[in-house]
Amino acid sequence: SSVDSIGSSPAALKRMGSGGRLLTPAGKRCQCEVAPVAVDRLEIDAEQLDEMFQSWFGVPEVAGRPRAQHIKGGLDRAIGGLWRTLSLQASSDSSASCTPEAALLALAGAFQQEPRGVAVAVESVITEYLARMQARMARWLREEDPLADEVADIAQWVMFDARPSLERFGDGLGGQMSPLCCWHAAADALEHSLLRDWESRSCDELARRLEAVYGEPYGEAPHSKPRAADLASEPLRLLRDVLSRWGAWKLHREASERATSVLIAALNSALRGYRGSLRHLLPAPHLADHQKAKGKHTATEKVTKALHAIAKKTGAVCAHHHHDHVPLEALIADLACATAEGADLAEWCKESRAQVRSHVAATAICAELLTAFAGAFEREASGLCLVAVESFFRIPANEALLRHIRFREGQPLGCARTVLGAPLSASARFLDESFGDGSRAARAIACNTVIGFLVRRWANQFRRSPPRASGFIGSIDADMHALRSFGSQHGADRLWHSSCPVQPLHEIRRMLDDPSGDILAKGASRLDALLGAGEGSALASAVRLASCR
Description:
Layout: H1 10-13, H2 35-41, H3 46-56, H4 67-86, H5 100-113, H6 115-144, H7 148-172, H8 182-213, H9 229-232, H10 234-249, H11 253-277, H12 289-294, H13 299-314, H14 328-357, H15 364-392, H16 396-399, H17 421-435, H18 440-464, H19 473-489, H20 503-513, H21 517-531, H22 535-548
């Protein structure tokens, strides 16, 4: 860039001290020794300057050249003209040196004689140039309607090329311009206008692109194919581009804040589009987590349960009317593909959060929003996978395996066998068939969901027919070991840093060891949190009954 190039001779650079400040040898006078002459030569002819800007930003010299590149070239020529003007040379003289260092050398003598007057003149020149740059940018944004990436390129040039060169020039003056800060305000206004426009355009463009990706929902037509791999990867590519922009701008306060805002908008659009594309796969809209936690049964939940019951009795493949004639295997394949997509989005958020936290200059809000969206995508993927697991075990051959969950009494500790052997074998086949080619994150979520499903079936069987506690401890230990081993084998244990789906069995085991009133009350409360309101008290009653036998 012409802004960063240094055209000063070695002899001239020797006169520059550390930090770019000018040093005048003792006993010698600078060639530019009359300050009033320098001030006069720094006066700006507004009409002439407008003509120069017109030539710098005129019609592109090369036909078909991208408009943004031409604008960038015009800015390069304009900043070069600024340094030639401050070097007391003609701004149109392209052969003259156009660097901040050359301008500092040219103004050295004048600053020594009349620092205040020359400083005012210099700042006036810089302000005039920046004001015209901003006017040109406003016209370009208004008339050409550039893409967000094109605006970002220009904003980056202003922040990291033009602005640093102006700062180097100001530092080289030895503090002479510190009382005068009008040019800082002009530079701030130029940056602000470009960043504001980039933010708005980026949010609009990302929303349109993500809407196009998720425009055709999963399972909209019978036997619909999973979303193409290249199309499914498009949201991740767009999110990576936004985060990359944040990484490049993280040291600039306003730019990093604007990039964070765009990242939030992109993640919101991705989550909204992802949810919308799934509406034909599910028997009813997703229920809010707080409704599930409170155990409320809304009308939608009741209808969903009724439809599930009808589907089970009549052999229908899905409760939703759009899938009345779609085989369960095809529905499971669509659900698995959608689960994998949500899992990959959640995994990207987690990995990006780790990268963001590694930056000292990272803002806390960026890491926090990535954490929040990782949880949101993971919950969506888990909910989809649960429907897939339920559908898999609705197939008659697989449904029969769930009947193996029957408790046997009198098995000694260390010798008991798990009652979950057959369901776990079928679950391993489900994971291999549906997620064998998927990512590690997708397989982990699927395995975690399978374990949670089997734990609930186990808890329901224990509640309905609690065995005698004295002969049951060995069996429950064997079941917990089998579930944990299954989770470790398929990678679900990587999700157990905060909660484990096997925890309900641990709570029941603790209650069986000590069925006192206080232990039962605490265990029931924890089981309510793990399995839903009302489940804890029902299981506590089953524990009490098992202990009395």
